[in-house]
Amino acid sequence: MNESITSLVQLGWGPFFQQQLTLEDLEVYQPARVFEVQRTGLTLLHEGGESIVSLGGRWFQLEAEQRPTVGDWVLLNRALNSLERVLERKSILKRLAAGSDNEIQLLGANVDTMFLVSSCNDEFNLSRIERYLSLAYDAGVQPVIVLTKADLCDDGESYIAEVRRLKNDLVVELVNALDMDSLRHVAAWVQPGQTIVLLGSSGVGKSTLLNTLSGEHLQLTKDIREDDSRGRHTTTHRSLHLLSQGGLVLDSPGIRELSLAEAQSGVLHMFDDIEALADECRFSDCAHESEPDCAVRAAILSGDLEERRLASYRKLAREEARNTESVAERHTRFRAFSKTVRQHVEKKQRD
Ligand SMILES: Nc1nc2c(ncn2[C@@H]2O[C@H](COP(=O)(O)OP(=O)(O)OP(=O)(O)O)[C@@H](O)[C@H]2O)c(=O)[nH]1
Ligand SMILES: [Mg+2]
Ligand SMILES: [Zn+2]
After folding, report:
1. Closest Cα to atom 30, ligand 1: which residue?
2. Ligand 1 pocket, residue 123 CB under 6 Å
3. β-strands 142-148, 113-119: how paired?
4. Which of 149, 165, 225, 243 is most buried, most CB within 10 Å of its CB?
5. What are the structural domains, with CATH classification, of the chain?
6. Ligand 1 atom 21: the closest Cα is on which residue?
7. pLDDT-based confidence at 351, cuts 50/70/90?
8. Cβ-contact 320, 264 below 8 angstroms
9. Which residues surround ligand 2, an ion (CB under 5 A)?
């Protein structure tokens, strides 16, 4: 393997992407990975180093999901100044865009592992963690729950125990994000060629984790002298970072509310224990309220299932279904609109 191929592999390249290219593609184009997305351009890394490429108007005629996002693999022309296409994604993380009821926002592409970052304090919330886990399961991304600020609380183990009650195979790490010694297990996930995304609320220590793991001051973190006023985000845009020891870490702005869309299978997987119980109910359409022989209510009465989990499942499933439907309606309208525009252009060309 020559030197240049090695560097693509360091950026996360592999057979999944290689097999999408024809021999001609390989001659004509340069594969590159998106490290940052600006309003009208991209920062990319490739065999030759870094390039900044502006996005032509045609990209803005596409929906957000089809435009390149951080973590994407794209093909550039050999002059490295024009984007040809976005390669099919190995994984994609998305949510309903903040402040919209039908628009998708992409949170990262081609990610292997999600560090779901939460703090051992009032920020910790099981229902929130269930949302992030559903998102990871839906995308086929390995979730690792990283509980920060262990040094500031004296019952860290109780937070771990709470998380473990959600599902028995969860990976949970209790850390002080400022201290590399406490990050040994977390660091083991950051292997060469692997891409890790940091997700969680503002102020939980995502950028601090990145800085400590990399051993460099890559990202600004909140100054401790500042007051902890709510709603102030220190990180304001997504960016991918190649660590000198190998591995890629995507830092993100804090998420206030993670609204899921197009993530039904992830939600079902998160709550598959409740689904398994529901299979045992006498009625196949049991609402688990006052029906006779309801296995779900029986599990709540016996203490095997927490009432909170059932409520959380209902809320999340309902919300996800509603959001998915609104997004689908938007897609339908968008396709109809694009078709009209296309027909109009074709007619003009014929005339
Ligand atoms: N003592 C202690 N402080 C921490 C820990 N993790 C983060 N902090 C502090 O918490 C504050 C916020 O950390 P950031 O890394 O900026 O949080 P963030 O998640 O990147 O926040 P946004 O960029 O706004 O989303 C900083 O002052 C960090 O030093 C930890 O494990 N222990
Ligand atoms: Mg940050
Ligand atoms: Zn039931």
Report:
1. 149
2. no
3. parallel
4. 149
5. 3-86 (2.30.30.140), 92-251 (3.40.50.300), 264-350 (1.10.40.50)
6. 203
7. confident
8. yes
9. 206-207, 234-235
Q: Which atom of ligand 1 is nearest to the CA of 182?
A: 31
Rounded-to-integer distance, Cα 97 and Cα 42, Å: 20
Beta strand extents in the chain (DSSP E only): 29-37, 41-46, 49-54, 73-77, 83-86, 92-96, 104-109, 113-119, 142-148, 171-174, 195-200, 239-242, 248-251
Neighbours of ion ligand 3 (CB under 5 A): 281, 286, 288, 294, 296
Q: Which residues pair with 44 in a beta bridge?
A: 34, 51
Distance separating alpha carbons of residues 21 and 8, to the nearest angstrom: 14
167 φ, ψ (degrees, to nearest 5) = -165, 145
How far, in Å, is the centroid of ligand 3 from the Cα of 166?
20
Contact 115, 196 (CB under 8 A): yes
Determine the average pLDDT of the residues in 138-164. Answer: 97
Question: Cα separation of 104 and 22, whole Å?
Answer: 31
Q: Are 43 and 250 in contact (CB under 8 A)?
A: no
Instruction: Give, for ligand 1, the residue of 207, 222, 232, 249 to mutate: max count of ligand atoms closer than 8 Å to Cβ.
Output: 222
10 Å Cβ neighbour count for 281? 19
Tell me, what's the pLDDT at 227? Answer: 52
- pLDDT confidence of residue 231: 52
- Matching residue, tokens 């021999």: 23
**What distance in angstroms lies between residue 287's CA and the mean position of ligand 3's atoms?**
6
